[in-house]
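Protocol step 4 of 5: obtain the predicted structure for the target chain.
Materials: sequence only (see below). No template structures provided, no constraints applied. The aim of this step is simply to have a reference model before the mutagenesis design in step 5. Sequence pasted as it appears in the construct record:
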Amino acid sequence: MWGDLYAYLLAVFSYWKWAVTGGPFLLDNIVKRVAPEWMKRLDTMVPPPIRTKYEIRIMLLAVFLAGFLAWRDEHHARLEVETAKSNVPVQSERVSRDPDGIYQYGNLVGKVELPFVDQSNSTVTFSKITGAVSLDIEKDFDYRDYILRMTQHGAMTNADVSGQKSRAIWNVVCSIVKGR
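Step 4 output (C-alpha cells):
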C-alpha cells in the first residue's frame, strides 16, 4: 500500500510542481521585478491580501488538477495494456505443457515413463513416475487430456543427495476421473 501511495504522490507532484511553481506566484514575482509600475496599479485594483487568497485557491485547484492528470495517465496506460492483452492470442495450457509431465495446481510435479491409456477400463498406467517430490498422491493430477487419481502403486523410492531431493514411484495405476 505504501508503495502505491508513494507512486501516486510522485505522479501528482510531477504535475503539481509545474502548476504551482510556474503559476500565479511566479507571475507575481516576475511582474514585481520587471514592471514595478504595473504592480502598483495591480495593488490598487486587487490588494495583496486578496491576491494571495486567489493564489492559494489557484494552488488548491492545481492540486486537484494534478491528481486528475495523474489518474488519467494511469487510466490510459491500463487501457493500452488491456487492449494489447486482448489482441494477443491465448496459448492453450496443454500446448505449453510437457506431454510426459504430470501437473497439480498448474505445476509440474513429475514425469512419467511408459504410459499406457486403457480407455475401455478408464485407467492409465505408468511404469514409473520420476521427480515426484511435490506430487501429493492423495490428490488428483493432470496428465495430457486427463484428470487422474492414483489407485495403486508399487515401490516408492526417496533420495536426498547433497540436499537435492528426488522421489520415484513404480508401477502406477490411475483411474480416469475426467477427460478434457
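Step 4 remarks: DSSP finds five helices and seven strands in the chain. The beta strands are 101-104, 107-118, 123-130, 141-143, 146-152, 156-161, 164-179.
Proceed to step 5.
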